[in-house]
Write a structure and sequence with these properties.
By secondary structure, the protein is an alpha/beta fold. It has 26 helices and 15 strands.
Length: 581
């Protein structure tokens, strides 16, 4: 790995994606639309339709089509320049809309005639029009007429589409619409045939010498049907792309790790295999992960929203290896459109580690605690249980890691961590991890909106301590409150303050300039300013703004010192590790 020391023009984008449609499962629409409708909306078909919608039709640039567009322009500009034609056309549009609205109201008359609004409309407003319009008794005939009007006049179709679109947005709601737009944009960009093609679209929007952390995605275990091209092939292509001479110092790939892939690996071709004969210095044996790291990969990426916790038993040995070698880990730490699409499993009804008191005994004393109850039903909601920032305290706080190793399915790892009843010889308190997206913009909004809750003000009131999670989480009442009610901006900020190697990136979250004020303010905290990374979440964020607009806005609103910290100094420190310095 080589992060350049000369950065007069370039910098480091710590969060980008270049996976293609071939790396996305066919039923990604599952849980977004009712079953079995999602089975008809295969990812490949949706991408094909989006391509036709957004890209110019075949022959668009031919002489024939160019001349046709010129002829259309001449007709339209002639109408605009001729007052008789201009106002004559306006009159036609007005009369057409009057007729359309009149007959539409006649069609729905049986439904509203007895209402107060109906009596006003049909008893007074429409009476003058009854004398100048042709009476049509049959509702079906009226509907046919409305269809013909809409089919004949493009301005009617466009007007109806705008009204339907506006109504759809109100029904769906702002948050769900945001998910849909991100989902749609993801599919649009994924339509490119190669990772190299997408990477070129990224790099051309940046100054020379800019470097890009590229995060692949392994979606084979999210229960959304088959992925056309396997993740292993995606990684092989990514490493090959990195080792093209022009990309060697520009493309910084991470390796995506899913515990279910490790669980299903074979002895012939293992994904992750290690030698723990010297637990204080774990070494990788021949495996896919070792090959990727040897060939230029410089970090690990996980995405718990796909259906697992970051403290999965298959991941713990890898985390110990990463901690010992300062290998950076980037994890998805917000909610978004990519999440587990299958049914919620029974064991996901409660948290594996965290506990809560659910009642008192007959003496008024708290009963023994039970595992924390997780009551979300919809996939889009319960993904937050996997991506919640407090899950990482189960790795970072030795007391929680010790509790984890006491679970039956984890006990085989006790020797690796030097477990005893008194404590652990080896822990993960120095794990270098980037909680990507800083919780997401919805959590930033929640933080800014809360003015009475103490937790939402601790970052400013106690900038060197924050929420004091190391102590606070050991109290079950406080743990319950933080899990359910403390917004993630405060939680992540506190984790940065309390743990030496916790970072966060601002990818996607800061797509609106209104968030840059909060970012600038939080960067005034000396405990936080060195652990925030610039990132964009390309290409997912392009439904909000282009890459060049993203970094130009931020660079010029942050000022040189803060921009230099988040876009170069901090990412360079985060990416450094002992395996590849």
């Amino acid at each position: 790995m080589n992060t350049k020391s000369k950065h007069s023009s370039g910098f480091i984008n710590a969060h980008t994606h270049i996976f293609t449609k071939d790396h996305v499962p066919e039923h990604l629409a599952r849980q977004f639309v009712p079953g079995p409708v999602y089975k008809w909306l295969k990812t490949s078909k949706v991408i094909s339709k989006l391509k036709k919608y957004y890209e110019p039709p075949e022959g668009h640039y031919s002489y024939t089509q160019r001349n046709k567009r010129w002829s259309t322009y001449q007709n339209r500009i002639e109408i605009k320049r001729n007052p008789i034609l201009k106002y004559g056309l306006l009159l036609i549009k007005i009369l057409t809309w009057v007729a359309f609205v009149y007959y539409f109201l006649q069609a729905i008359k049986p439904l509203f005639i007895q209402t107060i609004a109906g009596k006003i409309i049909y008893g007074y407003v429409l009476v003058p029009f009854d004398y100048i319009t042709y009476p049509i008794e049959s509702t079906w005939n009226i509907l046919v007429l409305l269809f013909i009007i809409a089919l004949t006049f493009k301005f009617v179709r466009n007007g109806l589409w705008k009204m339907l679109k506006s109504r759809f947005i109100k029904i769906v709601g702002k948050d769900r619409l945001e998910y849909l737009l991100r989902f749609e944009n993801l599919l649009r960009y994924a339509n490119y045939n190669s990772q190299g093609g997408i990477f070129s679209k990224l790099t051309q929007q940046y100054p020379p010498n800019t470097q890009f952390v590229v995060l692949p995605m392994d979606m084979e275990y999210m229960d959304a049907d088959i992925v056309p091209v396997s993740y292993l092939k995606q990684m092989d292509e990514l490493i090959a792309l990195k080792n093209i001479s022009k990309n060697k110092d520009v493309l910084l790939p991470f390796v995506f790790v899913d515990p279910r892939r490790i669980e299903k690996q074979t002895e012939i071709d293992p994904f992750f295999k290690y030698d723990d004969s010297s637990p204080d210095e774990i070494k990788l044996e021949n495996c896919r992960l070792k090959t990727y790291l040897d060939d230029g990969a410089c970090g690990i990426k996980i995405y718990p929203a796909l259906g697992y916790y970051p403290f999965d038993k298959k991941l713990l040995p890898l985390w110990l290896y990463c901690a010992q070698n300062e290998i950076p880990i980037t994890t998805h730490c917000s909610v978004g459109p990519i999440f587990y699409r299958g049914d919620k499993k029974v064991e996901w009804d409660r948290h594996p580690i965290f506990e809560e008191v659910i009642s008192n005994d007959e003496n008024g004393q708290p009963k023994p605690p039970e595992k924390l109850r997780l009551q979300q039903i919809r996939n889009i909601d319960f993904q937050a249980n996997f991506t919640h920032p407090l899950n990482y305290t189960c790795l970072l706080i030795p007391e929680y890691l010790k509790s984890l190793l006491e679970l039956e399915e984890y006990q085989h790892l006790q020797l690796l961590f030097g477990y005893s009843k008194e404590g652990l010889k080896r822990d993960l308190s120095n794990l270098k991890i980037n909680l990507a997206h800083y919780g997401g913009s919805e959590n930033w909004d929640e933080f800014l909106a809360k003015d009475r809750e103490q937790e939402a003000n601790e970052i400013f009131n106690n900038p060197t301590v924050g929420l004091n999670l190391k102590k606070d989480l050991l109290n079950l009442t406080n743990l319950y409150r933080h899990w359910h009610y403390t917004e993630w901006f405060s939680l992540i900020s506190s984790m940065i303050i309390e743990f030496d190697n916790v970072y966060t990136d601002i990818s996607y979250t800061t797509h609106e300039n209104k968030y840059l004020n909060l970012l600038s303010e939080i960067l005034n905290n000396p405990e936080i300013k060195d652990r925030v990374l610039f990132g964009t979440d390309f290409y997912v964020v392009s439904n909000q703004k282009t890459e060049k607009q993203y970094w130009i806005d931020m660079k010029n609103m942050m000022g040189d010192e803060k921009w230099n910290s988040i876009s170069y100094k901090n990412p360079k420190r985060f990416l450094y590790h002992k395996v590849f310095k």
